[in-house]
Specification:
The protein is mainly α and about 190 residues long. About 70% of the residues lie in helices and about 0% in strands.
Amino acid sequence: MAFMSEVTRILEAIGDGDPQATAELLPLVYNELRKLAAQRLTQEKPGQTLEATALVHEAYLRLLGPAGCERGWNSRGHFFAAAAEAMRRILVEQARRKKRLRHGGGGHRIDLDSQLCISDDVDDTLLAVSDALERLATEEPQAAEVVKLRYFAGLTIEDTAAAMNISVRTVNRHWTYARAWLYQQLG
């Protein structure tokens, strides 16, 4: 509990423009962000060049942005939701970059030991899920936010409810709807 209140205190200080608070935040949240990144990267295809450490650092830089940038996280859950969204965007950008022809989008990797092609299915799936999630966000923004928090941030139903400041029952309803909607869109 002390950890959560300390993170909340630092986030409030960052929101108030305290430059030293930014330096205090990373050591406190680094391990949780690293777990989140590692969990997300386990869902990526073999041969992923981005490591959890690099993903955490890139997401952290995007979250804090340039000095003087307006930052407003109202809670620890809100901060981690923003971190999960930043990681999702980084992975989607990387998948799109890899698909471009000049970055080898037309080629296939070959494992020299086994002579097997590594599939690009995971990149395709990530892009399809991201596109579908953007469409869902236009129709049902809260359901899309629940998916981001549950799928990309790995939050539980209860943590998602706390982060979004809604009831557990509402999260369950949005989660059920979003999964069915995404299944229909991706199936």
